């Protein structure tokens, strides 16, 4: 059974709906260099994530311009974990982890398995996503789940499957890729930045139903 992260939460009501649906983690986006209705400022991110209850991982999703800024954001927002997008070096990831003592997830383009292997021993988990040219995720596009499953079997780090997932396809995605977790943003939205609470509940439920169709 894959764990579930609901990402791109910009409203308190949507975050509460994700928690009530049984999500294992929630994600709030701040400081990304793309125009997104899911992005909030760091102060709002801190307010949203402060309401996350124990045993649900509060995750800051960001694409800052330096490792030092990543550390500043972590200290300002206070999440349980940091999900980084963009270009990073292994030394930068080590620095962020050492300075903050927080779990660091690194997003990697599904078409770049060598990069995933490079960071396997550095990041706490790898988010295998369908990235755009800037390295940002949230494209709403799927990728080859079987290849991601093959990659996951070679890695020691937990793999989080992202990219184009919906309540209708997540069970099949979990069956094929067998990831540690799945991550969804646009696939459970009414509009960008506003979640469909019914779709969120269905997504969480269906992520745990892979064995029924295997």
Automatic annotation (TrEMBL):
UniProt GO MF annotations: phosphoribosylanthranilate isomerase activity
Alphabetically ordered keywords of this record: Amino-acid biosynthesis, Aromatic amino acid biosynthesis, Isomerase, Tryptophan biosynthesis
EC class of the enzyme, as a word: isomerase
EC code: 5.3.1.24
Matches recorded under CDD domains: PRAI
Domain N-(5'phosphoribosyl) anthranilate isomerase (PRAI) span(s) in chain numbering: 4-205
Pathway where this protein functions: Amino-acid biosynthesis; L-tryptophan biosynthesis; L-tryptophan from chorismate: step 3/5
A GO BP entry: L-tryptophan biosynthetic process
Substrates-to-products reaction catalysed: N-(5-phospho-beta-D-ribosyl)anthranilate = 1-(2-carboxyphenylamino)-1-deoxy-D-ribulose 5-phosphate
Record-linked InterPro entries: Aldolase_TIM (IPR013785), PRAI_dom (IPR001240), RibuloseP-bd_barrel (IPR011060), TrpF_fam (IPR044643)
SUPFAM superfamilies xrefs: Ribulose-phoshate binding barrel
Top-level taxonomic group: Archaea
UniProt-listed Pfam families: PRAI
Family: Belongs to the TrpF family.
Protein name: N-(5'-phosphoribosyl)anthranilate isomerase
Organism per entry: Halorubrum yunnanense
Lineage summary: Archaea, Methanobacteriati, Methanobacteriota, Stenosarchaea group, Halobacteria
Gene transcribed to yield this protein: trpF
């Amino acid at each position: 059974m894959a764990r579930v992260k609901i990402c791109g939460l910009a409203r308190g009501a949507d975050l509460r709906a994700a928690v009530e649906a049984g999500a294992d983690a929630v994600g709030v986006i701040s400081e990304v260099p793309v125009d997104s209705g899911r992005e909030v400022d760091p102060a709002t991110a801190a307010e949203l994530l402060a309401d996350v209850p124990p045993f649900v991982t509060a995750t800051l999703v960001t694409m800052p311009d330096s490792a030092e800024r990543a550390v500043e954001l972590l200290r300002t927002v206070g999440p349980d974990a940091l999900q980084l997008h963009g270009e990073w070096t292994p030394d930068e990831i080590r620095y962020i982890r050492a300075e903050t003592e927080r779990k660091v997830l690194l997003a990697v383009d599904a078409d770049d398995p060598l990069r995933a292997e490079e960071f396997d021993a550095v990041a706490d988990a790898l988010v295998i996503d369908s990235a755009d040219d800037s390295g940002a995720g949230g494209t709403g596009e799927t990728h080859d789940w079987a290849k991601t499953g093959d990659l996951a079997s070679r890695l020691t780090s937990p793999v989080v499957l992202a990219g184009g997932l919906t309540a209708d396809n997540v069970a099949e995605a979990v069956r094929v890729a067998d990831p540690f977790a799945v991550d969804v943003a646009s696939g459970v939205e009414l509009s960008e930045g506003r979640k469909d609470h019914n779709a969120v509940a269905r997504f969480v439920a269906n992520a745990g139903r892979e064995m029924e169709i295997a």
